[in-house]
Amino acid sequence: MSDTSADEDAEERCPACTDANVDKKLWVACSHCETWFHVACLRMNSVDEYDTWYCPPCLSDTSLQLTPRMRRKSTRAHATTDYAAIQEGRPSDPLGRWARLLAHYDPPWPTAVRRVTGDTWTQAWMASSPDALTSPVLVPACDDTENPGSHIPGLRIPPRHTTIRDVARLVGPATHVEVIDVKTQRSSRAWTLSEWADYFETPPAKRDKLLNVISLEITGTPMQALVEAPSMVRESDWFERDWPLHRRPQAEDSAKWPKVQRYVLMGVQGAFTDFHIDFAATYVYYHVVWGHKVFLFAPPTAANLAAYKAWTSSAQQESEWLGHALRDVTRADIRTGETMLIPAGWIHAVYTPCDTLVIGGNFLADYDVAMHFRLEALEIATRVPRKFRFPHLLRLACCASA
Q: N- or C-end of the chain: fewer Cβ atoms within 10 A?
């Protein structure tokens, strides 16, 4: 256990770490060796200033003859070549292509997400119902706008009048948040929540680029009082059930244990997240506080997982659309007040038709343990860094199997 702990902690440090007090939420990868560094440790003002970036060791190796392409981006927009669009005889438009595929793909996407009432969501249902986890399951909205999760046992969700400014106020206006540039599907510069609220409140037509926040976990902040996962999640979750209380770190050392049950996701009109599987094939609960999300789902069959692995390893990933290689793809529209459960390992992409606020969380459970570790092995094989994999998975698995 101690060796595993040391290995995992080592992977959380970057080679440039010098100051334990700097903000270490934003990372950047070397374009050659793919080593990850904290942006703050590199004293970089903005990762947006670089098309590609090379770490000092790679630059010092003259035999590589690498020239860093660290051109400052001018204020004039430059077109990005969309090779898939060119092949299809259409103008280059990496942002619009995703929306057009949703609207015009032939044949139309089937909609096969099952609906159940909120009181169905119990641990006994998850454990014993033969079809509980065979596909995504949706619970319709309830009429109580102040307590929108009251019809699902144990679920606590912010009221529907909650704004992005409210999120910034509760979590902390100066709190740094990772912001994704939708066009590149990569991290943008370091933002504070106050800056993010300013951006979100800007009318869609005046936003200079599409941005997305999908990884703000609010455990330990004042907003935690407004968010709680459904009872069936907490009763099934390995951490809640199996991690011994006496071995859990104190609150001030909370980075040493998994915090994945209280995410706030904030997407603007037109944003999308490309196909992915949640880390370690975790189960996901997903509630739309207000707005609208469109999911494309593909089941984790052997053929689909093979296609997914090939795509994530491909140098053409940015210009290839995985949807053409996946089988049995279905569509699910999730609107204000609705809540969805995503089973382990399902491949999915997400589109945001309008500004949307979401509360969601991830958890590991006993129902498909093989899938959790199959995905962990796939993440290792495709060189997904530890920081983007489920935190402390091996420690947690040891507790769950004890």
A: C
Peptide bond before residue 107 is cis, with ω within 30 degrees of 0: yes
**Structure letter (DSSP) for residue 330:** E
**Separation between Cα atoms, residue 202 and residue 264, nearest integer Å:** 19
CB crowding 122-152: b at 16 or more within 10 Å, else e: bbebbeeeeebbebbbbbebbeeeeebbebb
Residue given tokens 């290689």 in the structure block:
325
Q: How far is CA 19 from CA 11, 16, 27, 189, 395, in A?
A: 16, 9, 15, 20, 27
State how far the Cα of 246 lies from the Cα of 354, in Å rounded to an integer.
45
Q: Got the DSSP string for 65-87?
A: ------PPPPSS--PPP-HHHHH
Widest distance between CA atoms in the chain: 66
- Residue with tokens 């071995």, as numbered in its chain: 247
**pLDDT tens-digit series, residues 13-43:** 677 776 666 666 667 777 667 677 777 777 7
Q: Quick one: angle between helices 193-201 and 164-171, nearest 10?
A: 170
Domains of the chain: 14-78 (3.30.40.10), 94-401 (2.60.120.650)
| pLDDT, tens only, 53-90 | 677 777 766 454 444 333 333 333 333 334 444 344 44
User: Can you read off the two tokens belonging to residue 135?
Assistant: 């596909």
3-state DSSP: the chain helix, strand, coil percent, rounded to 5? 35, 20, 45
CB 155 within 8 A of CB 360: no
By C-alpha distance, which of 346, 353, 315, 316 is closest to 328? 346
Kindly list the distances between the CA atom of residue 373 and the CA atoms of 4, 10, 83, 84, 261, in Å, as whole numbers in the listed order. Answer: 16, 21, 35, 33, 20
- DSSP for residue 28: E
**Secondary structure (3-state) at 236:** helix
3-state SS assignment for residue 193: helix
Spatial neighbors of 76 by CB under 8 A, at least 6 apart, are: none
Nearest CA among 307, 20, 5, 27 for reference residue 178 = 27
For residues 128 and 40, what is the distance between their CA atoms, to the nearest angstrom? 48
For the chain, the C-alpha Rg in angstroms (whole number) is: 21
Cα separation, 240 vs 363, whole angstroms: 9
Look up the pTM and report it.
0.76
